[in-house]
Specification:
Shape: globular
Structural class: alpha/beta
Strand order of the largest sheet: 3-2-1-4-5-6-11
Order of helices and strands: EHEHEHEHHEHEEHEEEHEEHEEHH
Bound molecules: UDP-4-deoxy-4-formamido-beta-L-arabinopyranose
Helix content: 25-40%
């Protein structure tokens, strides 16, 4: 299939392109390069031997999108592009709503004009807010998001449902990611946050390489086994494979479906620290500090719908995730 990938040089998109190329798909990648480097395209070629087609274009740029897609047959779009820094979204809500929601609407209009009515959307478990129950199934009610970034994911899901209701010929898969971490085993591609990492694992790897003095653990007074936050960490390669499987649902003309992509296991912050230390033989100094506003105690998936309908399950362990995260960081100290 000819697959349009938005946000192509990003963390999850680049790993997904590797898996799609391994499965014989042809990639047309687009990215505005505001948060990532075009060098990722060369790194993908280094891994797979095939350089994806790439166009530097913003999803908000209608004319740019039309030009990039002119004369091309797009069988499906996998839509990753978007601003995703939770903290930044609180201070820049208008930019987040404009870029993420406005950009998606522009993308959907262009896809419709070029005759592509198949889309896989990169959503997030954050749409559940403080979940009504755990483990979380897809029919768990969506909740109150704690930041504009989360609201953009939730609102885009609504736009997709309304689009399908008006035009059932669309085939739409919404993938709700839990906590993606890790990197390709080669250490050639991985997560490269700008500035101070918001997320746990990139912060840990920066402590491990000496870029940060210590990890600040946001609270140990949650109602969890050791008091620290519990999350469903999923290896980014497992997540990428979930997208390859989701294409089958598109081909089977699924209509519109939501899938949780998680392992079904919850691990605490201290679990991650201790696993990272034992797998990599590196001490991670940390200090318990106050809770981070907006954080929830516990969030992990019931992945049985994805297992059943997509024939997909996560196979990497937390040990694999810690090993691969460090392997990437240690090979990319710049
Ligand atoms: C995980 C745990 C923190 C950093 C976010 C987004 C979500 C998704 C994944 C995109 C929590 C603790 C963290 C640190 C810490 N992103 N922590 N010290 O908040 O579950 O989810 O990333 O879709 O939308 O909300 O992930 O990695 O930030 O935090 O103690 O320096 O680690 O309190 O318990 P989170 P996270």
């Amino acid at each position: 299939m000819n697959i349009l990938i938005t946000g192509a040089t990003g963390y999850i998109a680049s790993h997904t392109i590797v898996e799609l190329q391994k499965n014989g798909h042809h990639i047309i990648g687009i990215d505005n390069l505001s948060n990532s480097s075009i060098d990722v395209i060369n790194k993908i070629e280094q891994i797979t031997g095939t350089k994806p087609d790439f166009y530097q274009v913003d999803i908000c740029d209608y004319d740019g999108l039309k030009l990039a897609l002119a004369g091309k047959k797009i069988d499906c779009c996998i839509h990753f592009a978007g601003l995703k820094a939770v903290g930044e979204s609180v201070s820049k809500p208008l930019e987040y709503y404009d870029n993420n929601i406005g950009g998606t609407i522009t993308l959907l209009k262009v896809l419709r004009e070029v005759g592509c009515l198949n889309i896989i959307f990169s959503s997030s478990a954050t749409v559940y807010g403080s979940p009504a129950f755990v483990p979380i199934t897809e029919d768990c009610p969506k909740g109150i998001c704690t930041n504009p970034y989360g609201w953009t994911k939730s609102m885009i899901e609504q736009i997709l449902f309304d689009t399908h209701k008006a035009s059932p010929e669309w085939n739409i898969v919404i993938l709700r990611y839990f906590n993606p971490i890790g990197a390709h085993e080669s250490g050639i591609i991985g997560e490269r946050p700008n500035g101070i990492p918001n997320n746990l694992m990139p912060y840990i790897t920066q402590v491990a390489c000496g870029k940060r003095e210590k990890l600040f653990v946001y609270g140990n007074d949650y109602d969890t086994p050791d008091g620290t936050g519990v999350r469903d960490y999923i290896h980014v390669v497992d997540l990428a494979c979930g997208h390859v499987k989701a294409l089958k649902a598109i081909c089977d003309k699924c209509g519109i479906e939501v899938f949780n992509l998680g392992t079904g296991h919850g691990y605490s912050v201290l679990d991650v620290i201790h696993t990272f230390e034992s797998v990599n033989g590196i001490k991670i100094p940390y200090e318990i500090v106050a809770r981070r506003p907006g954080d929830i105690a516990s969030c992990y998936a019931d992945p049985s719908k994805s297992q059943k309908m997509l024939d997909w399950r996560a196979t990497h362990t937390l040990q694999d995730m810690c090993r691969d995260s460090w392997n990437y960081q240690s090979k990319n100290l710049d």
